[in-house]
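FYI - complex with adenosine-5'-triphosphate, inputs then prediction.
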Amino acid sequence: MLITGESGAGKTENTKKVIAYLALVGAMQQANEKSDVPKKRGTLEEQIVQTNPVLEAFGNAKTVRNNNSSRFGKFIRSHFSASGKLAGGDIDHYLLEKSRVVRQAPGERCYHIFYQIMSGWDPKLRDKLKLNNDLKYYHFCSQAELTIDGVNDKEEMGITQTAFDIMGFDEVECMNLYKNVAGIMHMGE
Ligand SMILES: Nc1ncnc2c1ncn2[C@@H]1O[C@H](COP(=O)(O)OP(=O)(O)OP(=O)(O)O)[C@@H](O)[C@H]1O
């Protein structure tokens, strides 16, 4: 399936529906099979669906045209066995808008993850990353909008962290990613 269109057309939302559908259909083929998946980590279908919050946190941003605009392209492959059982998946990404990391136009934001980390969802996270509490202190992510109408960055951070958990990222792996984000914010100063 090729999902294409101008910004705001609905590519991201409808891609999510396609993936959720394929995961559901793939899961039906294995409903009676026993799962040996550890508790915190989700099933394969859950993991595939949960790639979205993570990709959106790191690759989507508010633009003047779309509050959740994907700033990269992706090629998603779902693998099925001969019996129709979902067997895996992979995602290629390309053309991430890197300039947004250091500069935002009026009415826009940097990538969601910066604001999620600063949201105070985990009260100790900012301390661990040596970040102060004031987003405005960090030039790289405070040149234009700081919030999005109708979006709670604290809640979104919870959704991102849950997605990492379901996909099987451990605490150290998550912290390493957050450290990279914080490192960029520190570099801007
Ligand atoms: N199927 C849908 N049902 C309801 N609302 C939708 C649907 N598709 C899109 N929208 C609305 O349109 C907005 C923009 O959609 P979406 O983010 O999917 O666009 P896009 O084509 O991926 O844009 P971009 O290229 O900027 O990433 C969504 O936030 C949502 O409000």
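The domain at 11-187 is CATH 3.40.850.10 (Kinesin). The pocket of adenosine-5'-triphosphate is lined by residues 5, 7-14, 66, 68-70 (CB under 6 Å).
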